[in-house]
Design goal:
The chain is mostly helical. It is built from five helices and no strands. The protein has a domain of 70 residues. The longest helix is centred in the middle third of the chain and has 20 residues. The relative contact order is 0.18. The mean pLDDT is 86.
Length: 111
Amino acid sequence: MSRRSKYTIAISKYKLPNKKKSTLEKFFRIPRTLLDDAYDRGVGAYKTNPASVRKGVVSEEQWATARTYKFIINTLLARQGKKVPTGRGHDYDLVEQAVKFSNYVPKQSGA
């Protein structure tokens, strides 16, 4: 088993029933489009700079999922008024958008 990122560990503390994007969207009140954007940036980062990828990461999905979790944790910190990293790879532009959706309620599917 590879080493889990600190963001994956942080998300696992929330005791979610599953880690599907629809569950993350509802639980953390972050629009699906922003979760998808963070995931897509993770895939792009994995593909464009493989030298920066840790040895234990074996797929772009692992890297992108951890980046999505990092985005969620940073959004939660920003909503609490805490300092959030703004450098490369932190998706701060997405965090700023997600903070505006703190009262976001996802649409019910099939309704």
